[in-house]
Amino acid sequence: MSLPSIDLSFVADTLLPRLAAASLQSLLLVAAVWALCRYVPRLSASVRCRLWWLAALQLLVGVLWPTPLVLPLLPESFGSLIADAPSATAMPLSARLPFVMAGGDAPTASLADAAIGSVWPSWTSLLAGIWLFALSAVLTANLRAFLDTRRRIARSSAGVPLPVAQAYRRLGDSLGLRRLPELRLSAEIESPQLLGPWPAVVLLPQHRIASMSAGELDMALHHELVHLRRRDLWWGWVPALAQQLFFFHPLAHLVAREYSLAREAACDAAVLDSRRYTPQDYGRLLVRLGVAPRPQAGLASASPTYLILKRRLTMLQDAAPASRLLALSLTATIALFGLTPYRIAAADAPKRTLSTIDRGNGETRITELGAGAEPQRWAVRGDRYYRIDQAGGYHEVSDSATRERLRQRMRESREAAVAAEQATREAAVAVAEGARAAEEGRRAAEEGRRAAAEGRRAAEEARREAELGQRAAEDARREAEKSRREAERARAQAQRDAVQARVQARDAIGEHGEAEQMAAQARLTADLALRQTAEATRAAVEVAREVAEATRELGEEG
Prior knowledge:
Low-confidence stretches: 1-5, 76-120
Strand content: 5-15%
Strand order of the largest sheet: 7-8-9-10-11
Structural class: alpha+beta
Order of helices and strands: HHEHHHEEEHHHHHEHHEEEEEEH
Number of helices: 13
Largest sheet: 5 strands, antiparallel
Helix content: 55-70%
Distance between the termini: 205 Å
């Protein structure tokens, strides 16, 4: 790669400002992600991995985004400083550097400004050359490491023991992986590695496989296959590319390191979540694998440093993760407010406002007033424009921007006059309509007064009728009271009559009882007389029979 064949102007004028802007913006985003990971300890490792990945993506988006969002957050005084600064050339500093204060209208460039502008591109070209040279060195080193990795794969052996291959296939089936990477043995590595991304290969340490138990091999292979299922080889290109482009930025290396740690911790958590292994056994495996360099374009079960190993062991003891809603909310917030590139700019400088426009003596005079600034006077004679100084002298204006502004002022004045005339006509129409409405309102008020008088008369009649009704109700009440008293007297007399009738009835009932007793005695006497008569009859019959017998006996004897 030869630097003379590269267009340094694009790098100096476009790429370097974007790199600087993205670097500065990453300060806030990385600080936010770091604070979340530090002060929200219940965030799961997968959520931390996504947050650090978004921090890396922000760096790349800042380079690729053509126009950053301008945020007018700084005081207006900064804008006036830049507007009055001598470096406001045809290509001002605000167009080259990120996060600058964009002010108001800049004055016309002077010769000194042009001289400064002619010197500045040499510095940007020098910076562009240094960046390209360093980037080429970084890319060359990465390319060599990548080729070494591919050669290591080529030197590896496919002679994996049958029990290990069978366990590997069973593990892949349990994880739902339809196509498994090729499993090979290598004598050049210290821990299992997943290399790729395409084609992906899983390497096992040849000299360690005999000393590792079946459970340890299963845990190590499970870890690498979780990387494959999460597509970490592909997602990892974003932090890796950001680290290469921003090799000069310490936060880019921090983001890549924290992303790698969170990615390994997420795979550790996924292995333990399968409930096949205990955290103690898995922790012992991590300690046994120890520390090993991270492969280029690959992932290893071992940790690259003792600090990373210690942090991974600590994460195995974390409590239950935070709620899924909180995790999604944090991720969405970081993605929404952290990825869009922006530039902090000063608030627009106060624009000069039109004061007056006078026409006469063959010219048009324009007076402009600005907040805290001296008034400026201008004169327009035909197609020629003049600035009037404090002494009344005329100075012809040749600046096209000023001439265009004055023409705009005149157009605005004419439009304002037309608008004022239109407003006057509309005001006259409104006044006439208001007068008609007032007359109609007066008539309506008069009708309202008449209606009110009629209402008062109707209310007086209703009051009199109410009084008559009240008197009639009082008379009816008195009549009702009289009727009630008479009814009370009649009820008392009826009660007395009823009591007397009950007494007479009791007396009649007593007399009736005595008569019944006399009748019963008479019946008894009659019954006795009948019995006596019957006995007398039987005696008479007996006497007659006896007489007949005696007569018959006498007849026989005679």
